[in-house]
Design a protein that fits this description.
Length: about 110
Amino acid sequence: MNDIIINELFEIRNCLDQVVSYLKKLRSNSFTLDSFVQTKEHLYEIYNDRLDFSFYSGEYYKGLAEVVKRIKYSDLKNVRLSVIDGDKKSCFIFSSEDYSIILGIIFYDN
């Protein structure tokens, strides 16, 4: 099931309003996302470092650069990081605490 969700999120990843609607639909169907909330600055520091490291190491994570940029310029005080683990791929969703604003999604192969 998670792989289907990840694939559907990948298809709409550039339409963040659709991602908001999709997550609302999942949550209304009792789908629970593993998540935690951190300050914007803390998550920015961590993922900006990972972006720098990914350039250095040649590793590539779809959406990482976009997420780092959106976190940096976001007006949010805190950011929710939600994880969906699949068999083939996984993703991190960065959003407002209530999922009403999606900053972006990072996709990676398992």
